[in-house]
Write a structure and sequence with these properties.
By secondary structure, the protein is of the alpha+beta class. The protein has three domains: 3-231, Serine Threonine Protein Phosphatase 5, Tetratricopeptide repeat, CATH 1.25.40.10; 279-321; 329-418, Roll (Nuclear Transport Factor 2, Chain: A). The protein is 56% helix and 9% strand. Keywords: Membrane, Transmembrane, Transmembrane helix.
Length: 428
């Protein structure tokens, strides 16, 4: 082992120069030499560079060092690398071996990876078992994501009532990195499948109330079904017979029940002209009050409109302080990934304070042809941090952490990094 090269490799790794770090970790040992730390950190560096299959091979090399330990973390990282490379079967095998390591402190991460690999492989039943294990793991600080995925599995195996309970429990455990809108959308779909249409519409309403979350095509279909069915049920309800509006002869339309005993006043009744002078004065005062009230109607309308404008402005100000904006974080991230895939300019989606080198590194970390989806968002008035699931062009997926900063009323990206979970747990 070349200690000097190892020190240089660690320094490059800490500095974020993952290309140099990967090369230096490889050069620090001979081809047949075993060093768990060097291969572990080399695998992490290769993951950062998007070289997923090479990263998986590096983790395999690290696993050969029995004295290094950390097999649970290494196998979990290997599973993530294989999933990102599109090898879902190999990924599921690695995740399954990871949870067998009794010394592994955070097995929920392996269970989550296993569940995702099985779900994408078309096995929602076993995926649900894995997600349940992740949710009940005492080391899991944020079980909402596992519970939401469990609800998805229940829906796929036609157990909507169980899905409802999973989603509702997920809402009880929502943390800063979870998206309650996505959970409510899943809940709406489950309620619709269970025939609870009014509750489904209410859940979908909570999911889309801020205008940011977009329902999936399946969720849109469930909402439409719930609305149509509920509307049909209401239209079939017993109705009160409608009258023609005609009154029977001799009935006063101002008193259709005939309780007054009088019909419409006779036109020959000129009682007004028989009023005394004092009565006329009192009558005039009453009419002046009526006219005064009518004159104030315009002022009242103006005040109402002004109040509504103030309320709207207050609502916009409140939304701004809560981290909402346009374009949204999801809109900016989607357009940035599309720009990378299409080879078009990306500067308009990046923080203007970034240097050209920083922008180049950030853009180079985005895989071409990938699609990002924000799974959780911790937002404030000026900064936001999102956990993002990225679907890769080869069918795998990767988790990223994306930082945003406020630019005007919208958001731009200030940093992107791959979320390795246990990938950085090697000691240095």
């Amino acid at each position: 082992m070349n200690a000097q090269l190892m020190d240089q490799a660690r320094a490059a790794y800490r500095a974020g120069d993952f290309s140099s770090a990967a090369q230096l970790f490889a050069s620090a040992k001979t081809a047949d030499e075993i060093c768990g730390e060097a291969d572990h950190l080399r695998g992490n560096s290769l993951m950062r560079l998007g070289l997923f299959q090479d990263a998986a091979d590096a983790y395999s090399a690290a696993l050969r060092d029995a004295s290094y330990g950390k097999s649970g973390a290494l196998l979990t990282n290997q599973g993530k690398a294989l999933a990102a490379a599109g090898d879902l079967t190999g990924a599921a095998n690695s995740f399954g071996l990871a949870v067998q390591d009794s010394s592994y402190a955070t097995p929920y991460k392996a269970y989550m990876g296993l569940g995702n690999a099985l779900l994408k492989s078309g096995n929602p039943t076993d995926a649900g078992v894995a997600f349940r294990s992740a949710a009940i793991d005492g080391a899991n600080p944020a079980p909402a994501a596992a519970l939401m995925n469990l609800g998805d599995c229940f829906l796929l195996i036609s157990r909507p009532e169980d899905a409802v309970e999973a989603y509702r429990t997920a809402l009880d455990f929502v943390g800063p990195h979870d998206d309650p809108r996505a959970i409510n959308a899943g809940l709406g779909q489950a309620l619709a499948a269970a025939g609870r249409y009014a509750d489904a519409i209410e859940a979908f309403g909570r999911a889309t109330s801020d205008g940011i979350y977009q329902l999936t095509p399946e969720q849109q279909q469930s909402l439409a079904t719930a609305q149509d069915t509920l509307s049909a049920q209401r239209s079939m309800a017993p109705t009160v017979p409608q009258t023609t509006g005609a009154y029977a002869p001799g009935v006063d339309p101002l008193d259709p029940l005939g309780q007054s005993g009088n019909l419409i006043p006779d036109p020959s009744d000129t009682g007004f002209f028989t009023l005394s002078e004092s009565e006329m004065i009192q009558q005039d005062k009453k009419e002046m009050k009526v006219r005064r009230r009518h004159r104030h109607v315009g002022l009242k309308i103006f005040l109402v409109i002004l109040l509504l404008v103030l309320i709207a402005a207050g609502g916009l100000g409140f939304a701004y302080t809560r981290g909402y904006g346009y374009p949204t974080q999801q809109d900016t991230l989607t357009k940035l990934f599309e720009a990378v895939t299409n080879g078009t300019e990306t500067d308009s989606y990046l923080a203007p304070g970034l240097s050209d080198d920083a922008k180049s590194v950030l853009v180079s970390s985005i895989p071409e042809g990938s699609v990002p989806t924000i799974q959780g968002l911790d937002k404030s008035m000026t900064e936001s941090t999102a956990t993002v699931s990225v679907e890769l062009s080869k069918g795998g997926s990767m988790d990223y952490t994306v930082d945003f900063v406020r630019e005007g009323i919208g958001w731009v990206v200030s940093g992107i990094s791959i979320d390795f979970g246990d990938a950085d747990s090697a000691s240095e």
